Q: What sequence folds into this?
């Protein structure tokens, strides 16, 4: 989700203001649809995770580690924008319960590289499967949704996010 407290987000003009007939009037229906879509997008995975004693932070770690095998802990911290302490607690649970393994870097033993186990991949894929609704929307829905969501990302981070996603897509295809 976009950082709604950032200066960039609050200084945005509203290109659809003409549709509402008011200058700078938020597009309430889309804001509310996004809220309800997100609520339902995370609802089923939250239920699965709760039965395992996990929460959304565990889900996020599993997702990104599954998509990016060998991900550095530092990179994960940067993506999730959480403290080392918070990530450490979540990682410890995922490692102790056999969902994630941590290995030293080949060239730098101080690096901590993360990988999902077979058990972790199974759970990550189950959770992702619960979050796939685009198949209901017909042709071109993927590209339209991608453009919409990309536009919501802070423009300063947009290119880096798209490169990150492309890298994860390439890695997944190479494994798959």
A:
């Amino acid at each position: 989700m976009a950082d709604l407290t950032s200066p960039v987000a609050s200084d945005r003009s509203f290109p659809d203001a003409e549709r509402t007939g008011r200058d700078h009037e938020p597009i309430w229906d889309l804001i509310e649809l996004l809220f309800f879509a997100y609520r339902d997008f995370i609802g089923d995975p939250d239920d699965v995770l709760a039965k395992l004693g996990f929460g959304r932070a565990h889900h996020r770690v599993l997702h990104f580690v599954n998509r990016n095998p060998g991900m550095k802990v530092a990179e994960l911290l940067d993506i999730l924008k959480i403290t080392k302490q918070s990530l450490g607690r979540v990682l410890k649970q995922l490692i102790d319960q056999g969902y994630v393994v941590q290995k030293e870097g080949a060239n730098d033993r101080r690096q901590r590289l993360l990988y999902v186990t077979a058990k972790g991949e199974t759970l990550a894929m189950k959770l992702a499967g619960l979050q796939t609704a685009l198949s209901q929307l017909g042709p071109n829905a993927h590209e339209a949704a991608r453009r919409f969501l990309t536009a919501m990302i802070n423009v300063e981070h947009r290119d880096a996010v798209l490169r990150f996603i492309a890298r994860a897509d390439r890695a997944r295809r190479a494994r798959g």
About this structure: The mean pLDDT is 86. The longest strand covers residues 100-104. The first helix runs from residue 7 to 10. The chain is about 65% helix and 5% strand.
